[in-house]
Amino acid sequence: RYPAPGIGARLAAVLARALLLVAGLALLGAAPSQAATLRGDYRFAGTNASSCCGAPPLTDLGPNSFGEEVVGGNPQTVLRFPLSSGLSLPFGVIPPDSYSLAMLVRLESVDGYRRLVDFSTGTQDRGLYDLSGQLNYYPITGGASAPPPIVANRYTHVVLTRDAATAQVVGYVDGDREISFDDTAQNAVFVQDQPVRFFKDDALVGGEESAGAVARIRVYDGALTAAEVADISGRTLDDLPVPEVGEEVNV
Questions:
Q1: Cα–Cα dist 143/133, whole Å
Q2: For the residues 46-69, what does the mean pLDDT come to?
Q3: CA 85, CA 180: separation in Å to the nearest integer?
Q4: What's the pTM?
């Protein structure tokens, strides 16, 4: 009527080994995520050339001009783009399905839709936008932070990542995760043999862009992790919200 001594322990050990075997088989069947490597770093210090990695220069999509502005508390040269202008990155610098795009940008207007990255080479609305201060990937998902993290005429660090192994797309603003979605439908895969366009809208619906300026664009050939995005977001203690009464810490 009672189990022999040690049977319970042996059964537990067998079950533990079975679980480890199942977990190991699952890991063997999963494709590993690709580590992100920097492929281009555009600092706009009087040139559209990359400061590293042998990447080709960005192409102006209108009458852009260099000027000096205060970015992160320090004066530096930036590239100003007027309305209906922007930049393009030649195809092949990063894979079309596994990448990270990081940009430090200032938009003059954030009301309504304002284009950040075009995925259709000017033929569709599909792509990354600011939508009234929220990060938005049209037509799939949008952020809902309060207050909205993108503010007119303030430099904002925006990152979009796509992992080819998992088909996960994630968008960040100033180091904070704002949007994410499963992209098995490949909505966030760039068009083959076509450049990546920044800030300039498509011809389908007018008025969905803003003039502004860009202080830096970095492109990677894989998906940055949340920790890596935080490392490059440039946030400091000055970026913390005002402390609230009764709270001991502010993180």
A1: 9
A2: 98
A3: 28
A4: 0.82
